[in-house]
Specification:
There is one protein chain. The chain is α/β, with parallel strands linked by helices. Among the domains are: 175 residues, 2-enoyl-CoA Hydratase, Chain A, domain 1; 60 residues, no CATH class. It has twelve helices and ten strands. The longest helix is centred in the N-terminal third of the chain and has 38 residues. It is globular.
Length: 347
């Protein structure tokens, strides 16, 4: 009796799991299609948030919790009088506070966030002046050369307008991420942020011997000696490998030249080995300029500057938003599983 009950319960769970997987597959498919469609057009708008107001809100919440009634009343009275005094016109008015525009870039393998970055930089450049500053909170382990090349070119637009550019790295700016970071007039990194990895890597599986074992032919037809150097299914040649490595070396040379142009004081031969370093080591090598978190930098700057977070937001229908949330949830589950089985350096 108990065994039958357990079998029925197990069968029910299996059916439920199958239904859930099927539904999730449909939702993720819709999300992926909507993501491709979203990236193919400019259907969106710029959102602006004044970060100073967030800091002021935090401070007021703490004051209400910490101050006694009389002290709190006296504080708000003094604030009201100060605001009233500042609103009155003055003959010798103080110069306007400088502005800081904050952008966020979270990079993936394709540097797909470049589309949003492009829109955000365009918006900022319609107003920003040389007395202002652009801060980019950058997080990226790198990825495809052409994707990060374009992302770097977007940041170069800020430099070309002579607007100070500060790059903040709290976690990682490696490989293509550092290609972007080196464009900053100043690079600020957290003490244990991962920085560097100035190198190029390519990994290509080859199934030729497996296909050959089963007498399966695979032909690659090209016009041009080096149209295809290495192939996944065909038989690779020494000449093809040699040419492929030559292309990697050339890409690496371009990478080093790019970094050297924007960080001329770097000993490029020492840092362009493909290695990465934590923030404190990167500082000693000249890869970064200051050890500090982005939060510390912006909170300190808010005392003498007006700080605005700039974000380009796509208009996504409700069904697509549901699909994207579901896809994100699945990604988090898979990432958590992967992190549990993969050994990483830990403290």
């Amino acid at each position: 009796m108990v065994v039958d009950l357990l079998l029925q319960y197990g069968l029910f769970l299996a059916k439920a799991f199958t239904v859930v997987v099927a539904v999730m597959f449909i939702i993720i498919t819709i999300a992926n299609l909507s993501e491709r469609r979203r990236n193919s057009d400019d259907d969106g708008d710029i959102e602006i948030m004044r970060i100073n107001e967030r800091y002021e809100h935090y401070a007021n919440v703490l004051r209400m919790a910490v101050f006694d009634k009389n002290k709190l009343k006296a504080f708000f009275k003094a604030e009201k009088e100060r605001e009233k005094a500042e609103s009155k016109p003055k003959a010798d008015a103080a110069p306007a506070r400088r502005r800081i525009f904050v952008l966020n870039f979270h990079g993936d393998m394709r540097a797909s966030a470049t589309e949003n970055l492009r829109q955000e930089i365009t918006a900022v450049l319609t107003l920003a002046e040389t007395t202002d500053e652009v801060v980019v909170n950058l997080e990226s382990p790198g990825g495809m050369v052409h994707g990060y090349g374009l992302a770097s070119s977007q940041l170069a637009r800020i430099r070309q307008k002579n607007i100070p550019l500060t790059i903040c790295v709290d976690k990682v700016a490696a490989s293509g991420g550092y290609m972007m970071a080196c464009l900053g007039n100043r690079i600020i990194a957290a003490p244990f942020a991962i920085v560097g990895s100035i190198g190029v890597v390519a990994q290509i599986p080859n199934f030729h011997r497996l296909l050959d074992k089963w007498d399966i032919d695979f032909e690659v037809l090209t016009a041009g000696e080096y149209k295809r150097t290495l192939t996944v299914f065909g038989e690779n040649t020494d000449a093809g490998r040699e040419k492929f490595v030559e292309e990697l070396d050339d890409t690496h040379a371009l990478f080093k030249e790019f970094v050297k142009d924007y960080r001329p004081a770097l000993d490029i031969a020492k840092v362009a080995t493909g290695e990465h370093w934590y923030g404190s080591r990167a500082l000693s090598l000249g890869l970064v300029d200051t050890l500090m978190t982005s939060d510390e930098y912006l909170l300190t700057a808010s005392r003498e500057a007006d700080i605005y977070a700039v974000r380009f937001v796509h208009k996504v229908p409700l069904l697509q938003r549901v699909g994207l949330v579901a896809a994100s949830s699945v990604d988090k589950v898979l990432l958590g599983w992967w992190e549990r089985i993969v050994q990483k350096p830990r403290y």
